[in-house]
Amino acid sequence: MRRIRAGHAAVAATVLLLALVVGATAGLGAPDRSTGFKLTIGDIEAYTGDLGSLGAPADKAVKLGVQQLNAAAKKARNGNSFSLVTADTQTDPQNALSAARQVVGKGATCLTGPLSTPESVAVLNGVTKVRRIPMFPTATSTKLRETDDAHTIFRTAPPDDLQARALVTAVAQVVGGANGKTVALGYLNLPYGVGIYQVFSKGWEALGGKIVAVGYSEEQASYDSEAQKLVAANPAAFVFADYPDTFGKVGAALLRTGKYSASKAFFSDTLALSSIPNTIPAEALNGSYVTAAGSPSGTPQAKAFNKLYKSASGPKTGALLPNSFDSAILCGLAAVAARSNNPAKIVKQIPKISGPTGKPYTYLQLAAAMKAVAAGKHIHYIGVSGPINFNARGDTTAALYDLSQWTNGKLVLKKQLNVK
Amino acid sequence: MIPLAFSFQSFAHADFWIGVGIVAGIYSIFTLGLQVNVGFTGILNFGQAGFMAIGAYSMALLILKAHWSPWAALPVATLIAMASGLLVGIPALRLPPHYLAMATIGAAQIVQITAQNATGFTGGNEGLIGFDAEWQRIQTWLLGKLSAVGLGQQYELPLFLVTWLSFLVLLVVLRALQHTPWGRVLRAIREDEDAAAALGKNVYAYKLQSLMAAAALGAVAGYLLALNVTLIYPQSFSADFTFIGFAILVLGGLASYVGVALGAILLWFVLEGMRFVDLPLAADKIAALRLLLVGLVLIAVMVFRPQGILGKREEMVIRG
Amino acid sequence: MPALLRRAAAAPVWARVCGGALLLLAVLVAAKGPHDAAQTTVNGIVTGTYFALGAVGLALVFGVLRLVNFAHGDMLTFAAYMALLFSMTLGLPIVAAMVVGTLATAALAVVSELVLWRPMRTRRAGGFQLLLITIGLAFVIRNGIQLFAGSIPRTLDVDVTTAFNLVGHVRIGRTQSIAVVVGLIALLLVAVLLRATRIGKEMRALADNLSLAEVSGIDTQRVILVTWGVAGALAGLAGVVSAAAIGVMTPNFGWLLLLSLFAAAVVGGLKSAYGALVGGLLLGLVEEWSTMFVDSRWKFAVGFSVLILTLLVRPTGLLGRPEVT
User: Fold this and answer.
1) What distance in Å separates the CA atoms of residue B173 and residue B183, rounded to the nearest whole number?
2) What residue of B is the nearest CA neighbor of A116?
3) How close A173 comes to chain B (CA, Å)?
4) CB contact under 8 A, A93 and B286
5) Do the Cβ atoms of C136 and B302 come within 8 Å?
6) Which runs of consecutive H residues, i.e. helices, occur in A52-179?
7) Which of A382, B29, C42, C143 has most Cβ atoms within 10 angstroms of its Cβ?
8) Inter-chain CB proximity B239 and C259 less than 8 Å
């Protein structure tokens, strides 16, 4: 008897599930009005998991972007409004799918985030490609470029190969040429670290330099052997492709060797923080160099954004914040150009708001930019992260990198590097 | 079910809930393997995620590197996973129960670390993509059929149907096996290993077969996981997958294959439903709350209803 | 020579393990030079101390209760976060806060025995049931911590950058050296407790044969309670010293360490506290030694290979005796 009942329960559960699913489909279908639309931007970020510390700062940047859009829409009197929904991807492709489906279910037709490439690939193939929803990931791996995205992925952050090349240029300039010089490269054994490690070593070796690379993972109980290996190479420069959480531990181990000098160290953009967190020993950073994508910091929009970000409540530091902010603005501008919140129409308009041709606008002239695109004009959005020029793959074609130096706990801009 | 009641509108999120259904189905198949081992044979297999990884990676590598057809790759990958079960089982099944648990965890960790670091072979941290071309074709074809009933826009439905169909087929097979002499010997081993041995049964060989069956089920779950996230990525196969599988196992009940599906559906619908509860908390804290709930469910079930929802108390005989 | 081999084979296991480790070290010195070998040995002893502290508590509980405690790693985290809490809110000096964190973890273990494990034993709960409760407890502790403290990395804010030369150019961090000394003293005290005190002898008697110990009139409930207290204190100490010496922690750190602690305890024999000590140090040493030959990315794979190899050669661990059922 019991067994039969159990079987019935299984059938009943399956039928119930199917019924729910089929019944639910009836409620689908977003309203689509031609004027005075309401655009919902879906921000999918990692609030937990490996990249958990980067999600909240990025979300704050997107939120500020949405505020700017609403203020500009009011000023331009176009009757549009913008809202934001967010969900946690947990730095995991499976959960990123759920997060994306959740925000799309809540009406989002333009996505910002996620932060990692595996998550972006899952969301692309599982949600956005087939529904033609534009996505602005802050994932910077080169691999994402190789996947067929049906022109739905746009990245304001330049891919890692550009960043690695910027690092090569920066190191070569500072140490006076690469030929015969050894770089000790420490990287976190995650897609981000491995990606930069691969392109950097290739670039450095092509210039005649030597590489001593050490990969490590976040859960190690000590990093002394790794740090000792790096300093034992007696390198001309250290390069790190790491996240702040791990580098706190690695930095302490480097200092314990007694042979590490921060003035010889170079970091990728994840360590381009606005101040040194208490989890990283200051001596491990002070004097070191950091390359970070596209914050042409002299520009009025960059200054204004930095002020805006610092004065708003919430986290004060993060990575790729200008890029997250620009993503939200691009979503909004493209929707205004499309006069619709329909995702496929937004996708089509994105080339018309990016350069290199067209009249340039920054977010400080957002209302004027909205009027221009609503009138069908081709504009060139000059982001906080730099001029937005998308190539056919939705990537920025060339990128400007800041080379800054940590000086007494503050990042001071030294020069800017153009990388193609 | 309270979280679901918070916003009934969330049922309009068809894509989302179909997606949850797929995840629940993948976990169901994964946990069927644990049920064979833990519920029916009395083996503490804590390395199921490792077998899942071996299945998924074998399938993808055969397709991508050896250019096999998926129809050849799938059975061979399943055999490879079973062979890995044999390889782990030969030494590990001679160990006392707790040592066996540790050995299987260790083996699964080695698989994950290898997948992460044998970059040239497994794609390393960046994972593998592009193994699902054939599935894309099938999906398009299925969507064409579904559009006849007005469901052509439900892009997740094909995988949902395939996942649960696979589960049902496996369920029928496993239930049939349960009543064969083979199935009875497994239960006899679980009840009393020495008595089974005294009856002339080769206990060790049966345990190996049980572990190999679990590995095969893990591999099937791995294929579906790969199709769902469209990439194979080392972090997807962490030990946490196995722990959640155990939570599903005891929630549904030991020695009940149907309970596995019930446990998986319940757990995942509550876990994902919690995304819709608006709590005045930061996202990292909400994520913590979800997993805290998994822990509480585990403890509560084990304290108040150790046989789970569909299990029978007299079948709870795991030594160690 | 054959006579020497025969004598080596007849030596106690611990002597053979130490001998083997020394032999391996000699090979490493020959292959990689004395400095690298000595430096990785020091690093290995540092991590080995964390592993040993954690694993001994795991082995004590398993010895007495035949329970693999999956929540043990999260007890390490609990201690570190309690220390953080006390130093932040009450402004306690960090050493005092660490002591409080350790004691709080011992208290947590004792309370869990009183409200959870003892009632479950009186209900005659099975081993599997208890095992899964520990998994549930692990989820509850870890995510409870995250619920209050968030997932952002934290630091106990001790000096992790100062280091000195031990011999020649072989370096060790100041906090690391204190961690090793404190850890080894604590483990020595546990050894004294097990050898020389009445309660220690009773704990060993329980570990050897529970029913026999009960028959011989030992107050098993009391012994179990003390075992939990000692195991909790050791986990707490492991948590605070490793979190302090590594420098950065998240609510995950104990959980991530747990599998290494398991490996250490199983290599040592799971039931034997001395075994766990040997296993912990051995695992730490082999993992750090391996970095001379392969990239650190493989460190954990090396650790788990040691586990599997040990079980292949000695199915009940290095110092474990065959299971008596």
Assistant:
1) 11
2) B126
3) 31
4) no
5) yes
6) 52-76, 93-105, 117-123, 129-131, 143-146, 160-175
7) B29
8) yes
DSSP label at residue A236: S
pTM (2 d.p.): 0.90
The two structure tokens encoding residue C25:
């070290």
**What are the chain A neighbours of C51 within 8 Å (beta carbons)?**
221
* Separation of alpha carbons B171 and B32, rounded Å: 8
ipTM score of the complex? 0.91
Return d(Cα B252, Cα B27) in angstroms, integer. Answer: 12
| DSSP track, B197-247 | HHTT--HHHHHHHHHHHHHHHHHHHHHHHHHHHSEE-GGGG-HHHHHHHHH
Task: Please check whether residue A356 is in contact with residue A387, taking contact to mean a CB–CB distance below 8 angstroms.
Answer: yes
B partners (3+ CB pairs within 8 A) are A, C
Q: Which two tokens stand for residue C6?
A: 């025969």
Angstrom distance (rounded) from CA B222 to CA B73: 13
pLDDT one-digit tens code per residue, A162-211 = 888 999 999 999 999 889 999 999 999 988 898 899 999 999 999 999 99
Contacts of C222 (CB under 8 A, 6+ apart): C199
Residue-wise pLDDT tens digits, B278-307: 777 777 788 788 889 889 988 999 999 888
Reduce the secondary structure of chain C to three states and give it as a string: CHHHHHHHHHCCHHHHHHHHHHHHHHHHHHHHCHHHHHHHHHHHHHHHHHHHHHHHHHHHHHHHHCCCCCCHHHHHHHHHHHHHHHHHHCCCCHHHHHHHHHHHHHHHHHHHHHHHHHHHHHCCCCHHHHHHHHHHHHHHHHHHHHHHHCCCCECCCCCCCCEEEEECCEEEEHHHHHHHHHHHHHHHHHHHHHHHCHHHHHHHHHHHCHHHHHHCCCCHHHHHHHHHHHHHHHHHHHHHHHHHHHCCECCCHHHHHHHHHHHHHHHHCCCCHHHHHHHHHHHHHHHHHHCCCCCHHHHHHHHHHHHHHHHHHCCCCCCCCCCCC
Q: How many CB pairs under 8 A join B and C?
A: 148
| A24 neighbourhood in chain B, CB within 8 Å | 11-14, 17
Cβ distance of B229 and A126 shorter than 8 Å: yes
d(CA C11, CA C129): 40
The DSSP bridge partners found for residue B128 are: B232
Residue A170: name the closest of A288, A66, A29, A51 by CA: A288
